[in-house]
Structure prediction request, 298 residues.
Amino acid sequence: MEWGMKSSITVIGTGRMGSALAGSLLQAGYPTTVWNRTRQKTDPLAKLGAIVAPSIDEAVHASEIVIVNVSDYEATETLLRNDAIGSAMRGKVIVELTSGTPSGAREAAEWYTRRGASYLDGVIMATPDYIGTDAGTILLAGPRAAFDTHGNVFRALGGNVQHVGEEPGRANALDSALLALMWGALFGTLHAIAVCQSEEIELDELARQWSATAPVVDGLVADLIKRTSAGRFVSDNETLSSISIHQGSMQHLMELMRSRKIDGSVIDGYDAIIKRATAAGHLHDDFAALSQFLAVGK
Prediction:
């Protein structure tokens, strides 16, 4: 393959996601070096034209951009954050695409910056099959200049790669927020399934009714975010639902779950938040008022 003048890139970690990242870069014509602790996992990429580095040191030295996709930040720290490799970081762009925390991203950014590297911390909001497609979404935080300089590289990874801010922990914070939304929906679905099964309702019926209900829920979520952003917690003419309405319905759900011996630990947590808000005099406020009571002890 003719590399031309394109940036050289190293991908560290060639599991399913790392292989998808490297494969997209190769398809876009970027000279790509790969390294993985288990070398056999790099074989398919070698057949596509990737250079397989024999060591992590050589992998880092090989390229101006180093993309990391391993198991967690601790694994990255073990591989890269040492004096031997740290001396090779100057002038490089390190792109961490491993799941972590905002505080971990800030700590890493400080370490790499002290060694003269530009550090972009990112999260992949997609499964491997979306990498390299127009719908592939990756959020990156860190120096805007590094993001803009290598924009073509990032566009090769997905059509919806976004720079979300200079503060290095921002992408991981957004990831956690969006996962909280996702898990809320998934655990809610598990509860719905358990209720239907206990009441001998076919799950096909649940699916049909959810299709009709989903737009209403989407509207409630959008309204909750909008009202919380504006601090509009008192019920008004535009309120879609008050805390009191949810509180009553939740008591009915909890009674049903107790009678059917369905695990109520998640619902009990919701109820505890409502009780804190109610004790503070917010029972008849907009549901968005609950956003003030997520802090433990409030």
User: Anything to note?
Assistant: The radius of gyration is 24 Å. The chain has two domains: 9-166, 202-293. The chain has a mean pLDDT of 95.
